[in-house]
Design goal:
- By secondary structure, the protein is mostly helical.
- The protein has a single domain, classed as Helicase, Ruva Protein, domain 3 (Orthogonal Bundle), CATH 1.10.8.
- It is built from six helices and no strands.
- Helix 3 runs antiparallel to helix 6.
- It is elongated.
- The relative contact order is 0.11.
Length: 121
């Protein structure tokens, strides 16, 4: 029975599995690039590439270095977004706000003195 289904063409469930695998691999590559600093989370939010359309904002934030669940939740609460909000469903205003906040957070992190090292006056 399975042989007859495959000879008639690709069954829909196999095409769906193949597409899901493509998206999963592309999303993993995107997260790797964000983690390594090749790409910023703000860029991903603003550009909204196809891999990130159905990805949650929380997944993207956590893929950044030094970002965990607590920091992500605080950021999303400040931005009045839920953890399940997808990047593709953000409005233009929300995209700009999130990108701006991520840029400000990144800048503040770079300018903050390292723990245990006194700040230069």
């Amino acid at each position: 029975m399975i042989a007859s289904a495959t000879t008639a063409g690709d069954p829909q469930h196999l095409r769906a599995l193949q597409r899901a695998n493509e998206v999963r691999l592309a999303r993993a590559e995107l997260k790797r690039r964000v983690a390594e600093g090749e790409l910023t989370a703000a860029d991903v939010v603003l550009e909204s590439p196809w891999q990130a359309e159905s990805m949650t904002v929380a997944d993207l934030l956590i893929s950044q270095r030094r970002w965990g669940r607590t920091r992500c939740r605080r950021f999303l609460a400040h931005a009045t977004l839920t953890e399940t909000k997808t990047i593709g469903s953000l409005t233009d205003r929300q995209r700009r706000m999130v990108a701006e906040q991520l840029g400000a957070d990144h800048l503040a992190q770079q300018m903050a003195p390292t723990a245990g090292v006194p700040a230069m006056a």
